[in-house]
Design brief:
single chain; 5 strands; alpha+beta; 2 domains; two-stranded parallel ribbon
Length: about 130
């Protein structure tokens, strides 16, 4: 089947996809209107759905005595909104550089959670940075 026969048989609808065609103004009127309205409408629908979901969340399922109950649910994005001068003054210690001599000192470590264990009333946390753990 050649291209012209296919077009006659299927009668497809054409849409503009390139920026050049948009700049040239080759858009059909319905596509121009759809593009602007659909974006705003879809954005408003997503926002309304997200707000409904948060409003419908049942907080009664959490233990009222739980001290961390306020931290459950959706959180805002952490964008490091503190003062950059203060942020860059923090000195991070590499996990591989920690020695017994540092015992009792306060240090800041950057790593990921490697393992956790609970033993009795105590919890143990193992932090990992590259190949070193503590």
């Amino acid at each position: 089947m050649n291209y012209e026969d296919y077009i006659k048989a299927e009668t497809p609808t054409f849409h503009v996809f390139t920026d050049e065609e948009i700049e040239l103004g080759n858009l059909p009127e319905e596509v121009k209107e759809e593009k602007k309205d659909n974006r705003d409408a879809k954005k408003a629908e997503r926002l309304a759905a997200r707000q409904d979901k948060v409003a419908k969340e049942d907080t009664s399922k959490w233990d009222p005595k739980d001290p961390s109950a306020a931290f459950y649910g959706e959180r805002e994005i952490n964008r490091s909104q503190c003062d950059p001068e203060i942020r860059f003054t923090k000195k991070f210690t590499d996990v591989k550089d920690i020695t017994p001599i540092m015992s009792g000192q306060k240090i800041i470590v950057r790593g990921r959670l490697h393992n956790t264990r609970g033993k009795g009333g105590i919890s143990f946390i193992v932090l990992r940075q590259q190949f070193a753990t503590i």
